[in-house]
Design goal:
The chain has about 180 residues and is mainly α. The chain is about 75% helix and about 0% strand.
Length: about 180
């Protein structure tokens, strides 16, 4: 069951990332063509493109947590004894989970605030809370991915521990990325 949940979350974040980026690119292209060839612009194209790029970036960042593509200063961890490195990495993951969980809670609170205000985007005629929904959703996926990494860090034997074995997973199967020899 865990593998199915993991696959669904991964599919959700990659699909949203790709669809949002594709639609934003198409809308921006059509709007440029309309503006330069027909001297007419779509008033809603600019805001829609911006919102779609934001959605794409946030869900792309969430997927980046899964495959370990975020920048990390791991030179210290890689040069420490395995037991100490494992402990430091676990503490680091717990701090990141706390930080992103706090941001997720603030995102949910902001959506509730936005629902209460009943603000509507003038150009797109949709409630702002639907636009802001990407923040807590993507952050919750990031927290989930870090919880997976925390589990991996806690359960990996010390003699098998490496930073990459815990933090980097392949896009296809979630298994740690194999190091090049």
């Amino acid at each position: 069951m865990f593998a199915k949940v993991d696959k669904c979350i991964s599919l959700l974040s990659t699909t949203l990332m790709m669809v949002c980026m594709s639609v934003a690119t198409i809308v921006a292209f059509v709007n440029v063509v309309m503006r330069y060839l027909f001297a007419s612009s779509l008033t809603w194209a600019g805001p829609l493109t911006e919102y779609l790029f934001i959605w794409s970036a946030l869900f792309g960042a969430a997927y980046g947590f899964k495959i370990g593509m975020h920048i990390g200063v791991n030179a210290i961890i890689q040069n420490l004894p395995a037991r100490l490195a494992k402990g430091l990495l676990i503490v680091n993951i717990i701090i990141m989970i706390g930080f992103l969980s706090t941001l997720t809670k603030w995102g949910i609170d902001f959506i509730q605030f936005s629902i209460n205000l009943q603000q509507i985007d003038i150009d797109l005629r949709i409630p702002f809370w639907t636009i802001y929904l990407c923040v807590p959703l993507s952050l919750a996926i990031m927290v989930y991915e870090l919880l997976v990494k925390l589990y991996r860090a806690v359960t990996i034997p010390v003699d098998s521990f490496t930073y990459d074995a815990v933090m980097k997973a392949s896009a296809e199967d979630g298994e740690p990325v194999k190091e090049f020899e």
